[in-house]
Design goal:
21% of the residues are buried. The strands form two sheets. The chain has a three-stranded mixed sheet, sandwiched between helices. Strands 4-6-5 form a three-stranded antiparallel sheet. By secondary structure, the protein is α+β, with helices and mostly antiparallel strands. The protein has two domains: 3-80, K homology (KH) domain (GMP Synthetase, Chain A, domain 3, 2-Layer Sandwich); 86-148, 2-Layer Sandwich (Ribosomal Protein S8, Chain: A, domain 1). α4 packs across α5 (115-125). Helices cover 47% and strands 24% of the residues.
């Protein structure tokens, strides 16, 4: 684990500690990112309202550790495996829509999605060389359009 990873973990523990929570942070290296999974008493507070507090915590981490500082390293904050399950479902949906687009020739839309979710969709669809993706919209939440490559 790098010194930078340690800084991110300490930051997460400081933020959650300020909320009165004593949570453990486990790291999981994947080819795409470092997953920081929070566990402990009352960790499920981040799962209320379909994970909105977890999304807010992710934004706080991304804001505190800007890309210039972390380079190509992506950190994904998860609680009790919640985001991992959602990510797997979104990945499966994106792949299924890509196959549907390839078979029908008709474009499909997915969203509105936050930047993290759009990245998952773009990467999942990129596995199919017959289709491509494009994000549409000017807001934080955008729609991903999956269509045949021309």
């Amino acid at each position: 684990m790098s010194e930078f990873d340690e800084r991110v973990i300490t930051f997460l523990q400081d933020v959650t500690g300020a909320m009165g929570l004593n949570l453990d942070v486990a790291t999981e290296e994947t080819p795409d990112h470092v997953r920081l999974n929070l566990t402990g008493d009352n960790a499920d507070v981040f799962l209320r309202r379909n994970g909105e507090p977890l999304d807010a915590l992710q934004v706080i981490v991304n804001t505190a550790f800007r890309r210039e500082e972390r380079g190509d390293r992506h950190y994904v904050v998860d609680v009790l495996g919640f985001r991992k399950e959602q990510d797997d479902a979104l990945r499966a949906k994106a792949r299924a829509l890509a196959e549907k687009v390839q078979a029908s020739g008709e474009s499909e839309e997915l969203g509105p999605l936050n930047p993290y979710s759009r990245r998952i969709v773009h990467l999942a669809v990129a596995e199919n060389p017959a289709v491509g993706t494009e994000s549409l919209g000017d807001d934080f939440l955008k729609t991903v359009v999956i269509s045949l490559k021309r």
